[in-house]
Backbone:
């Protein structure tokens, strides 16, 4: 027979495990947008009270994605993916994308792809810099490239946000979408 405090402790542990640690996970290529669009988006989301995860720039090229980064993705409720010219050159961002899209199959996980000065067709069909990056990765990571290609193609299932608006207006629109799905 369990004591009441033990039962309550188990309930609290289960609730803590099911709560999201972050509202928003930002996936982006640091060298492209960290100090511009994505940095502004991060600041705005934080000011509006959203717990937002933005990685640091200490990640090294070619390293495996860290378990803490994968956990941050899994413990978020919304992913904002900022596709930029060099996004696909990073194995980190490609792995983030694959994890994000896997989550959409098993839980209510919202995804907002933003096409920052890139044509969405180039992302979905791996053309232009996205095709070049995947060809480069195929030589070094042949076992992972198929998963990444599938993830890039699958992004077209989500409503695209094109960078045609003023950046300030776009950031406001994204914050509104995040607010809607978290209510």
Residues:
């Amino acid at each position: 027979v369990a004591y009441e405090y033990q039962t309550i402790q188990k309930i609290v542990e289960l609730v803590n495990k099911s709560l999201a640690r972050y509202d928003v996970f930002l996936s982006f290529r640091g060298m492209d947008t960290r100090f511009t669009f994505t940095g502004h988006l991060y600041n705005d989301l934080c000011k509006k009270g959203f717990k937002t995860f933005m990685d640091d720039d200490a990640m090294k090229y070619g390293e495996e994605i860290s378990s803490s980064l994968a956990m941050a993705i899994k413990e978020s409720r919304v992913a904002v993916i900022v596709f930029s010219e060099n996004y696909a050159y990073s194995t980190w961002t490609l792995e983030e994308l694959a994890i994000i899209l896997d989550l959409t199959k098993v839980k209510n996980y919202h995804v907002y792809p933003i096409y920052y000065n890139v044509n969405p067709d180039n992302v979905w069909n791996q053309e232009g810099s996205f095709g070049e990056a995947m060809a480069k990765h195929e030589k070094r990571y042949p076992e992972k490239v198929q998963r990444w290609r599938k993830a890039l193609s699958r992004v077209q299932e989500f409503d695209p946000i094109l960078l045609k608006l003023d950046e300030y207006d776009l950031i406001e629109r994204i914050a509104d979408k995040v607010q809607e799905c978290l209510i």
Observations:
- The radius of gyration is 18 Å.
- Residues 8 and 14 are 10 Å apart (CA to CA).
- The longest helix spans residues 91-106.
- The first strand starts at residue 22 and ends at 28.
